[in-house]
């Protein structure tokens, strides 16, 4: 197992990049992509693009994308006593919020805090079973007063993230931490770019680190219009089944089982059939563990990208992660490796548009 892959994910999950504040991830990725691509650029929205020209001028143009942003929170007001009211950036799970460590980001400085939680001693039995409303929650940053909180530079709009380094379990392959969604995808994309630099393929490849996925798949929509690819691979995470709190048929896939190939996102993406079959054939030929899945709950950038650009063959090559949209998302490094290997081999197999036509 390439443990450097774990170190890479640990590094990228240590960066704080909530929706709309993705610069730390974009800057780190730009540095790496500049070393293995011919050209790197950004758009006004923040999306990062990197280009590799293929060996065959008439081969399809392939876009490979992963989103940079992570779920988090945003301060809406400072209240009496120096406590902070907040809203969500994306969709963190409400039931895990009380008692969480969080970090505010003010002008490049991190300010530590906790989401307050009522003492168990005074909760009624009924109250103890309830998930508090977001509007009743607050962040405590240890300020003496409203004025002191303000003097630290906190204001409406200050972004907030979960806190926690990537934790290695006693299983060498499995780790957990914050923003596994989608730093595993970002790391996979960077590894794919290096592999295809060393072994160039027929297709020209455009790598896109997209912004604002967690609040409505927004950056990728802009990026896909910009790139106008023929083929799109989206690298992202998928909520996992396989835990005791889920019925076996609720999410019939688990971590450690390989790459997840989405046939459908029921709320959006319909994967183009010849592309889907090409990717499956490549996976089977090279013994890369994989599973076709129908995602009845989640959507990814593939949904908005397919709608934005229209005439493209789009597909998600994903990995499962448990405890989606909490601060302790658990995943299996072997799945990331499968995602990397499969995307490299599938991209290298795309040599003509004709071969991807449905009729
Ligand atoms: Zn994601």
Walk me through the topology:
Elements: H1 3-14, H2 23-36, E1 39-42, E2 48-52, E3 61-67, E4 72-79, E5 83-89, E6 101-106, E7 109-115, H3 125-128, E8 139-140, H4 146-151, E9 159-162, E10 167-168, E11 174-177, H5 180-198, E12 204-210, H6 218-227, E13 231-239, E14 259-265, H7 273-285, E15 290-295, H8 301-309, E16 313-321, E17 329-332, H9 333-348
Parallel strand pairs: 3-12, 3-13, 13-16, 14-15
Antiparallel strand pairs: 1-2, 2-12, 4-5, 4-9, 6-7, 6-9, 7-8, 10-11, 11-17, 14-16
The chain binds zinc ion.
Zinc ion (ZN) binds next to helix 5 and strand 13.
Fraction in beta strands: 25-35%
Structural class estimated from helices and strands: alpha+beta
SSE run: HHEEEEEEEHEHEEEHEHEEHEHEEH
The total beta strand count reads 17
Ligands: zinc ion
Helix content class: 25-40%
Strand order of the largest sheet: 1-2-12-3-13-16-14-15
Whole-angstrom Rg: 21 Å
Shape: globular
Determine the number of helices (DSSP H or I, runs of at least 4 residues).
9
CATH topology of the largest domain: Aminopeptidase
Number of domains: 2
Low-confidence stretches: none
Distance between the termini: 42 Å
Label this structure with key terms.
single chain, about 350 residues, alpha+beta, Aminopeptidase, Elongation Factor Tu (Ef-tu), domain 3, 2 domains, eight-stranded mixed beta sheet, six-stranded antiparallel beta sheet, 9 helices, 17 strands, binds zinc ion
